[in-house]
Every structure is written in C-alpha cells, then in structure tokens.
Amino acid sequence: MSFAAFKMMHWATGIEHCASGFITHSSADSTPKIPPITADDIDSDWTTSTKPIGPVPNLITAAANVLEVYIVRIQEEASPSLAHKAAAEPKGGGAVLAGVSGASLELVCHDRLHGNVESLEVLPNGATDGGRRRDSIILTFRDAKISVLEFDESICGLRTSSMHCFEGSDWVHLRRGREFFPRGPLVKVDPLGRCAAVLAYGLQMIVLKAAEASTGLTAPAEDSTFRAAAASRIESSYIVGLRDLDMKHVKDFIFIHGYIEPVVVILHEHELTWAGRVAWKHHTCMVSALSVNTTLKQHPLIWSAMNLPHDAYKLLAVPSPIGGVLVIGANTIHYHSQSASCHLGLNNFAVPADGSQEMPRSGFTTELDAATATWLTNDVAVFSSKSGELLLLTLVYDGRVVQRLELMKSRASVLTSDITTIGSSFFFLGSRLGDSLLVQYYSGIGAPTLNHGVKEEVGDIESDAPSMKRLRRSPSDALQDLITSEELTFYGTGPNNAQIAQKNFTFAVRDSLLNIGPLKDFSYGMRINGDPSATGVAKQSNYELVCCSGHGKNGALTVLQKSIRPDTITQESLPGCKGIWTVYHKNLRSDSSKGVADEDEYHAYLIISLENRTMVLQTANNLEEVTENVDYYVQGTTVAAGNLFGRRRVIQVFARGARILDGAFMTQDLSLKSSNTEMNVASDGATVSSVSIADPYVLLRMTDGSIQLLVGDPYTCSVSVINPPVSENSDKLVLACTLYHDKGPEPWIRKTSTDAWLSTGIGEAIDGADGSTHDHGDVYCVLCYDNGDLEIFDVPNFNSIFLVDKFVSGRSHILDTFFHGAANNHINLTNKYSEDIGQVRKEANHSIKVVELSMQRWDSEHNRPFLLGILSDGTILCYHAYIYEVSDNASKTEGVVSSQNSVNLSNANASRLRNLRFVRVPLDTYAKEETPSGVCSQRITVFKNVGGLQGFFLSGSRPMWFMMFRERLRMHPQGCDGPIVAFTVLHNVNCNHGFICITSEGALKICQLPALSYDNYWPVQKIGLKGTPHQVTYFAEKNLYPVIVSVPVLKPLNQVLSSLVDQEVGNQFEHDNINMEGTYPMEEFEVRIMEPEKINGPWQTRATIPMQSSEHALTVRVVTLFNTTAQRNETLLAIGTAYVQGEDVAARGRILLYSVERISDNIQVTEVYSKELKGAISALASLQGHLLLASGPKIILHKWTGSELNGVAFHDVPPLYVVSLNIVKNFILLGDIHKSIYFLSWKEQGSQLNLLAKDFGSLDCLATEFLIDGSTLSLTVSDDQKNVQIFYYAPKVSESWKGQKLLSRAEFHVGAHITKFLRLQLLPTSADRTMPGSDKTNRFALLFGTLEGSIGCIAPLEELTFRRLQSLQKKLVDSVCHVAGLNPRSFRHFHSNGKAHRPGPDSIVDCELLVHFEMLALEDQLEIANQIGTTRMQIMSNLNDLSVATNFL
After folding, report:
1. Most buried among 869, 909, 1030, 1209, by the most CB within 10 A?
2. CA end-to-end span of the chain, whole Å?
3. What is the spatial distance between Cα 795 and Cα 726, in angstroms, rounded to a whole number?
4. Residue 820 φ then ψ, to 5°
5. How far is CA 53 from CA 93, 424, 442, 875, in A?
6. Is the Cβ–Cβ distance between 1003 and 1088 less than 8 Å?
7. Distances (CA, A) of 345 to 123, 353, 1384
8. What is the mean pLDDT of the chain?
9. Measured between alpha carbons, how far is 1420 from 830 in angstroms, rounded to an integer?
C-alpha cells in the first residue's frame, strides 16, 4: 500500500452545536400559522388555549463538519374541513398543544465543510427595520478562523459574506509562545446584532463589528428590493488582548441585555486552585462587565463581582426586561447584575463564600456540571443536566430586581450537547449521545383545556411521536424515555412557591433526528436473512455492522445495513420478462358503498410484459392468471399500463396502439400512426418507445423521436390522439419526455409564474366545466431534445413556459434561458482554445445524451418537485426546484437581449415560469452504469407508498432506492438480487404496501421493505440497552453477539469506600471523621450475549455474565485455541477485566474463558477457566492457536491445555497500556495509549516474541490495524488528534536504523476520532478481470467508525490512478467554490497539536474533495481533465471503480 484513498461513506450524525435564527426568511415574512378564528369557532376553549405561535426561525445544526439548516413546519389543529387531509399524513405530534397538532423539521441546505465547526452562533439583524433583514450564521474553526454565512435565495444555499483569519506568520504573536490550546475559538453575539466577539488562543478577544442596516434613502433605487432583504453582515474586526485588562484564565464570556452599548461579561479565574487546596481556596472566579465601544475600540469596566466558586464554568444572559447574568457552577447558580445579586445551592458541596451566611438551597440535590441551558420565557430557563434531566429555573423578580432563584424538576430527556429555543413555542435538544429532539412547550396559566391534555400525554407521546408513520415502528431511544410513567411527573408545586404554581409547562416531542454516534466499537456479522449462495456484489447484502453507540440511558446497539435486503413474501420463476405494472379498477357501484380511501385500495390487475406476449393476473386476493378472460392486448409486449379517469379505466399501451379497459372489458381501441407525414417511409417503423401517464393525459414518445399526446375526456371515458405542435415545427428529435402532474391543495408550479391570473386559479377556469376534475391540479410536459436542451410545456395547449440550454451538462443551477439569457450558462470555455481542441470537446459533448426524465412532487403542502435525468454515460442528474422572485425591470432587459424573437416577447412573457429555478442535488453514494445508446429503458419508477415511504426506485444493474424524507433524497442501494429489470408497487391482502421486482435471472419476487429507519445515510435499526455498551464481538459459529454493557447503580457510600482499601495490606479504614450517609453511583459491568431473534425484530439477551463489584470488563473476543491435550481447536469466549479501586490499590485483572453451547433453543454459557493476574487485561487475541494477553505493561503468550493457560513467551512492551492488538499470520501490531505502535513477530521454534520495530514518536493511539495490499503489509494507526498514519517496516532502508524504526508511508487528518478499524477485502471491479489468486485479489480496505457517528474507509490505490487523482485534487482546491471559504488542503494536514512532528509523505487522496468533480458542469469537467492531461472518461471510471470496490455491506 504505497498509495491510498480516504472516503467517507456515512457522515457524522452526532449534533454538537445548534442555534436558531431567521436564515431563510426574515421575521417579517412569516405570519402566525394559526388559522383565523371565524365567528362560530369562538368559544371558551379557543380563547384560553390558543395563542398565536408567531414567526418560527430556522434551526441550524453542526455535526463535526456537516452543517444543516432546517425549517420548522407547523401543522395546525385541523378544522373539520381539513380533517381528511390531516388523517392521510400525520406529521408527528400527538396531543394538540396551543392549537398545534404537530411539527416537523424540513431540510433547506446540507453542506459538508472542510473543517470541523468549533462553535456556532447566529448574528441577529437587530430590530432596526421592522425585521425585514435576515440573520447570518457565524462559524469558527480551529485555531482562529471565522466565517460568516448568509442564505442566498437566488442559489437556494449558503454564501460566505465575510471571512476573518488570525493564523499564520502575521498573527503568530497572538499565541504568546503557546502551541497547544485545549479548546477552539468560541463565538458569542450581541443580542441586538451590533457586534460579535470570538475568544481565540485562550486570551485574545476578536471583536467583529456588524455593518449597520443601510437606510432606504441611500440605497440605489433599482437595487432597493435586494438590499431590504439582505442579511446582517460583518463590517470589520479588531483584537482586544484580555491579558492587558488583567485577566489570566478566561472560562466563558457572553453579551448581556439591556444596555445602550454592547456589554460583554467575562467569567475568569484570577488565581488558580487545585484539588489539594480546594478546602482552603475555593472561591477563585469572578465576572467583569466591559462596555464595548466598537468605533473608539475602548472597553471600560462597568462592574464586576468577586468570590464566585472555582467550578463556575458557564454564563447565561438573562433576557430583557430583567437583564443581568447567571453564573452556572457544578454545585451553585449565581445571579449578578449591576445592582443586585442572589444565589442558589444545588447540593451539599455548595458552600457560601465567607462561610457565615446561610445559602438558599433547592428542594432536591442535583449537579449542574456539563449542563446546557436556554430560555423558554424571559424568566424561566430550562437546563439539561448530565444525567439527561430537564430542570426549570425560575427567576422570581420584582421590577428589575431578582429576589430569588427557584429550581424544579421537569422530565427526563436525552443527554444533550447543545440546546436552543426556536421561536416562542419550541426548543431543540441537540445530542451527540442519542437522538436529537424537537420539543414543543406551552406555559399555560392554569388553562382548563390543558388539564386533560396532560393526563392523556402518557399514552400519546408514544403513539403519535414521529416514530409511527415516519420512522416506522422504531421509536427512538429518547422517545422511549419520555414514555416511562415515573419520569412524567411534573413537580409543579414544590414547597411554598405559590407564584410558580401557576406557571405549568407542558412538553410534547414533535420530531427527532436520528444519531448513530458515538461508535465506540463495532463488529461485522451476518444478517439473519442472508443468502449463503450469493456471490460478488450481492454477497455484501449478507453482512451488517453491529455498533456500540450512545452512552448511559441512551446506550444502544445500532445495526447498520447499507444495502436494503427486502423481506421476500413469495418468489416465482418468470424468464424473459420485460416490464411489469399494477393497475387499480374502481367500479362505480362498489365504490359508493365502501368508500375506501385511495391509499388503502387494493390493486386489481398485474400486467406482465414478456418477450413476445403479455400476461394478465388478478391481484385482489391471490395472484391468478386471467390472460384468457380479459380484453387486454396479449399477443405482443406491452410498453406501459396505468389508470385514467380517477382509476375508473385502465390504459394499456403497446408498440402500435393502445386500449382503454373498464376492468376486464375493452371500451376503446386506438392504433397509432406517426405524425410526421414527410417521413412517410420511416413512419411505418415508428413504434411507441416510452410512455408517461398523468391522468387524464398520456404522452407517447415514438422511436423516430416524435411525440404524441392522448387526451382523455372524463365524461365519456374515451381518449383522442393529438399531435402536439412541438414535433411538427421543430426538426429536433425528442430523446426523453415525461408528464409532471402538479397535484396538492395548492399547485406549486403556479407560484413560479408571474402572471396573476395564472397563479390564482387557472385550474378552475379550464377544468371547471364538468365539475369533476377540480382536484386534478395542472399537468406539464417536460422534454429533452437530442441537442441537450430541456423544455417544459403546459398541457394540453403546448405553450413553451420554461427552456434550458444544455441541460445535459449538469450545471449547479438552471433557470429559464428565455428570460435570463445566457446568464446562467458558464462562460464558454471552448473559446479560450484553438479550434481543434474545441472540436474534440464538442464531440465528447455530443456523445452524452439524456435517456430518461422524471419529475415528481409528493402530496404535501410544502414539497417542491424533484427532476431526475439519466444520461447515456450513466450519470444521474438530480435537481430540486425552488422559487426565486426576480424584480421585473432587471429581467426584461436581459430577456430582450437574449430572445431572438423580441417581437414575440410580450405575449410569450405572460405565462413563462420566470421565477422557477432548479438547484442540483449531489448524489454521493451512486456508482454509475453505462446505458447502451439507443436503448430507452424506463428505469425510474415513482412510488407513493411502499411501507409508508415515498420516492423513486431506479432499476438496472445497480438498483437504488431514492426515498424522500424532510425534502431530501436518501439513497439506499439494493444489491442482494443483482440487476433488476422491472419494478412496480403492489398492495393487496397478502402484501401490504409492498412491491414486485423482477431480476435479470427471471425471478419474480413479491417483497416488503423491512421495518428500519431509512431517514439516515444508511438504513438503521436501534436496540436500546439502558446502559453504556463498550465493546461488541461476533460469535460466527453460533450467530451471537457478546456485548460489554455497564449500568450505573447507586451504592451505599461506606460500601464504596471500603472497596477502595487494599485488602492484602490490611490497612484499616478510619470511620470516625467521615459521614457514611448517602449513596454514590458506581458502574456495574456485565457481558450480555445477544441474539437477533427475527428479521428487524427486537434482540434477545440469551445469557448474562456478571462481573464482580468494582471489576470492569475491558475486552471481549472470540478466540480459537489449540487444546494441547485433546489435540484439537476450540472456539471460546475470552473476557479480559480489571479491578478499578482507586490509586491506592495495586492494579489486578482477570482472564475469563467461557464455552458457549446451544442446547435446543437455549444458550448455555459455562466458565472453563479464570485466573487473576497482575495488571489490567486490556486486550487479547488468538495467535496460531495460542492466547496472547496484554497484561499491564507486558504481553504474555499462553498455550491452552484444556484446563489451564500456561505462559510460553512474554515481552516487556508496551510501556504503559495496550489499547489495541492486531494479528496477521505470526505478526503482532500493538498500540499503546501514549507511546505509539510496536511491531512484533512470534517464532514457534525458540518460542520467542521479538520486537521488530516501533514508532519512535509519542502518539496517543485510539485504534490500529494492518493494511494489506497484495504482498505489501502496512500498519495503520489513528490518534486522539483525529489523524491517521500509515507506517511500514523496511529493515533494508538506511533511515530505519537497521529496521528498529517504522517509516511513515502516509498521514492524513480525518477530522474525527477513529475508534475501530475493520479489514475487508476489496470487491472486484470491471477493471481487474485478472486471474484469481493474483496480487490484485489480495487487496483489503479498512472500514472505520468514529466517535462523531461517521463511517468511512481507507482503500489502497494503484500508483497510476493515485497520481491522476492527486493532480485532479490539486486542481479542485482552486476551481471549486468551497463552503465557508475553507481550504481542503489545510484541513487534511496532520495536526500535531504542538508536539514535534516530521511531516510524512502525502500519499492519500481525499474523496470528500474529489466528489466535487462530478458536480461540476460538463464543460468544466472536460476543461479540468484536459488541463491535467487526461480525459473525463478516465477520471470518472477511476472514481467509479473506487466506489464499486468499496461498496461494502
């Protein structure tokens, strides 16, 4: 492995930072969402319980380097007229709270940055101009980089408005000689948006001055609309050295409310203390308030407060009208303002500063270290403590004087990493350790309508939380918590707090974001429904990753399966199948009596097109062939079939005609002739090649490139043929076409037209005649020509309303060329070159065509359409529509210039969709497949309800599900059946909302989707453990998973203290001076042996091996040992433990061996051997039938006699503590917690363990593994600074000091803590069809999991491929616009954090940067490929081979 590629496969999900602000809309834009109350609605219920929710800001989350912006969509309590709509799609919710029945998060933009977000704040716009300006996002990155982002509506994404960097040689004096800083830059913002401040390098405060809102008079007139909606910006920045203001150790700072100028309060420690001195010196912190004058750059001290406890760590600014600041410590909360102060003790460790006066204490004990907090109202803050409890802190105040603080318990929730209030009714709990929650709160002042709501809630939260419809029967771990009844009590009325008793808070969980982090360990096992006979890519669907994730009560086993393996209900053999369709049949008599909802209607017929005939099957109960008894066309193949006229008729289209059927009886027969009379000779051969149906229209594309439209008449249920004017007047051939049906309560496309008449109600004007088609919405026709242009027409008039030049080149944004001219085309790159290069470029350009189109919008109020196009080289272009309103005068001038027929402009102008734009969505995980030219196969199938999900299914040689969640497409491959020829949905008695797929081998499979959570990068199933999982291993023979789990248990204090005494020395413990009352939480460890019982069902704990008190299980592994007495191999479960008893007791550990037997259905675990050793046993492995133990600072090799372990060899490495141990053949790789890695070998003859080489640097290892590339062996290690290094052993090279030193082969900054590597063999790609057993087949990639919840891999590359991709990577650094202006090269440099480090070779390419190449426009791709001396095809095939080779799981 001389060269490698780094590739992410599953991005981080653990949310570390969140904030809320008006990013995509201003506060003036959004009106209250509550429906207006009409006169007859007003009664006592409404008046007491409904308060308008007001504008709801966006939610911004950051997980490692993933930045996402969400809109909170609120669903009001349904009035009777809307009841049927709400019943069709519950969006998460439950009890109606304040007139809201549900809320969900909808994704606006998702960006992956080249840097980890250290802190995140929103710069508010200030209330200067009535809230018309939007807010901006301020991000900070390690060492001292600050980026300010704003949302740009014209590109529907984030744009960098300013960047501030205080790194490099000019700013080196800011470090004051220090190399290492424990935390990155911290940003805080003035509540009125006048300035922001960043604390960097420990003591440097960078003040960012905000630009003042420009007044309407000064702005230029034509630009005024744009200026008014602009976001807040940063104007300038300067540095304040806090050391000059006599501050030494700054812990936190914040801007406070209620002053004319911005005032910053800084919490700092003027003298440090330490554990041995706390009894004497404990109140060492203080707060200082500085007034910030950004113009004069002066910072006078206004007030300060001394004598705060040493464990104070956080400040919270109290909102107006009270003002002031809360100082939060582990045991106390203090309130300070310029005029008043008060405090509250939380437990027995809270001591007053002078020891004399009595301290007010809360009614219960708690600890607030590592808590997060936000304000619900101006006097109530919610805290989320380290145990996951929500606490409410109320400030009891009079005027502006706070008299006292009162704390009460609320409910249990997830362990949070950040918390933010969204508007006046929601808050969001962001979590790294569990699922993040969106919670609605309501403070009723004794509202009568809420009393029954509270009682119902115990049941409601579970039944209606987002788990039901959207997460599909997999309630998240956090929702489980909120259900347990004892945690649901509201401590509303504590002792003597009459004022608070009226403030009752009611909470309802409205939505949750799934998180699989932190992945502490994972193992690679077989799925229960795996297919043992599978080979090649399909074999990968047999495996799954079982991960230890979460912590404490959010601990869970997470089962990840990248590819979907459907549950097969039945399977038939059906060779030669070409296509398959299911159709409904509504017969009028039965319809009125039953009144079945559309969603639940069963399919009536299944139509299967074979090579030269068509089969028809009845599907209502069982599948029965009825081909003989129906009037379908069965003599040849069918091209398509579907329903018309509200499911009353079926249309079947075949090569030369079409039939309309009512159930089994034909009502109309059409034969189709080609329209182009000039091409009479060819017209005999023109047959139907593709069909698109949108009730009541059917669009046909003929093989000669013309199109025909069948128009249905809903009265007579008959169809007539129209030749659209498009095909007559143009000589351009249509290559792909589709109809788009804009359904829904309010059609979406109408909003993008500027014509007032069109946008208010053209539907009624046209369809209103018969009164039956009101709900049809509008139908549009999308065409793609052979020159690569895309055009949208309205149907049936065929007026052109949208035109895009060169759709095929895949630009990042497309808009109507007719209006906006060539503004959206990139500058033509071809003119820079001489003609001959231009010619080459053109040929390459023309060979790529669009072969299929599909445009779809699902029925929900806010959904925007997706447009999918497949190109002939296998690329999939996916576009998401959005609206950007252009001011008239700007676009008309462009229009005149661009439009050739300017005479025509005025009347064509009226109905064009000038505000419609599309933004391209990246599809990362997709491996492409070539489509042979000329074959127009219909590969995209739209599904509305397969197991409650909606999206596209893409058939072909690499089938893929595109599922739509929160306005984002989630892509999940389905590899288990190989290529899929045809797909259709099926809903009947035996198959509830399932589907049928036909494989290329000719198997017809009727399947259902397994009940997993699909709203994640990979489908996932979470099994809650109610404890922290530490390590998991896979027992392959018995298909079991032993897991180390620890659960906190409260123990009496005297029991805990007596265990801390070394029994052997016999020291007696003095009981006199210590109060023995109370309990202390201790982690109790056990090894659970778990088994997946049935597919996607709950897992069963088959056996439990408990540990002794204060004994921690450190490692569990399945080992194969050679029994020397019986002369055979035995597979045993080995557990290594350690006694954790404090620093006064010498460390000991135990090695335990268990045999696991399956007797009938039960698992029997018997202890075979146990022995106590000196030193903790932190890692173990089997080495050629022997057992290798890492016991404290040495490793010992044992042989197994069947009854005991006997040592045969030992070696005194590592110096400190082994974190990981890997074995290949007789080589041992060992990672030490502090001293990097050691490479040893074992010789059987002299039974010796020899140290071959080691890394001489110091490195805090987290995980190690061997990387095998053919015959080369490399050693990979990850460290606590989020790097990966690859070493090799080369005794013949002079730098290696005769082989003692390991040499560096590559190094790379991953940006996440890698906790586990797994070696997996690379899959064969099309490129290497070599002989088995050659070097190419013996190549392995390393799959890794991280604490941030991300999964990726490091795969070896050929040198030629590596050089090509590396030169491409260097080009992409400059030629792609990176989000937040971050440099990918500096992000991927090795981070040594102040330690001396010699830079190693740069031999890893970064696929996170290379994926941008596929998102570039075709012209740019050809240009860049040409500049680095290669071709686009070559680069694409390299990237594709890499994704095929690493297509694991």
Report:
1. 869
2. 23
3. 12
4. -95, 10
5. 16, 7, 10, 45
6. no
7. 34, 12, 48
8. 81
9. 10
